[in-house]
Design goal:
Length: 199
């Protein structure tokens, strides 16, 4: 099983090593890491140049959703996700997802839990999720974290990309659209990533 991790990036170079190293350290699965940078002017390009395994580009885009879409269409993995440049995967996260998917082959989208952390990595709390349906998205909002959600690549190939008109709640709209299109969601009750909250 092969995973494609897409990281949108813009002037967050101080966090990028955590993100990249967390993907690089995953074991038991094949991984490609695609970074779509929007033309950073901080240390980002210097950081990216230190990792020859990355697929990356740096050019202006139309916002985060556009950057993610650019990575999605390059993905060659069986499963695709986006990992924000200031977040990072926990050890063994991708192997846990692979094991879940082997046991649940009809799943199209799978999400797990994340752990909210401060800028300095101090743990705030774990976000525990549950299986979801369309009513959850309609009445609760974006109730699953993008940083620990994975999509079958066939979804991307079917033309289901993020709506670039959405800048803050594009994941919420995307999940609801996929669910209404009939894609099957699954839930793995494991902490898969750290999600940074900071000013």
């Amino acid at each position: 099983m092969r995973f494609s991790i897409v990281t949108p990036s813009y002037n967050q170079g101080r966090f990028l090593p955590d993100c990249i190293e967390s993907v690089l350290s995953q074991t038991g699965v094949e991984v490609e890491h695609i970074v779509t940078d929007a033309g950073s002017i901080d240390e980002t390009l210097e950081v990216l140049a230190r990792y020859p395994h990355l697929k990356w580009s740096s050019e202006p885009d139309k916002g985060m959703s556009d950057g993610i879409n650019k990575g999605f269409v390059q993905a060659t993995g069986d499963w695709v996700m986006w990992l924000n440049c200031d977040d990072y995967l926990l050890p063994g996260a991708l192997k846990k997802i692979a094991n879940y998917l082997q046991a649940h082959p009809k799943t199209d989208v799978v999400h797990g839990d994340c752990v909210y952390i401060q800028e300095d990595k101090t743990v705030i709390r774990r976000k525990y999720d549950t299986p979801v349906d369309a009513w959850d998205f309609l009445f609760v909002g974006c109730c699953i974290p993008s940083t620990s959600t994975f999509y079958r690549r066939e979804i991307i190939e079917a033309g289901e990309l993020l709506d670039t008109e959405y800048r803050n709640c594009m994941d919420w709209e995307y999940y609801l659209r996929l669910m209404r299109a009939g894609y099957q969601f699954g839930y793995l009750p494991e902490a898969l990533a750290h999600f940074r909250w900071y000013d």
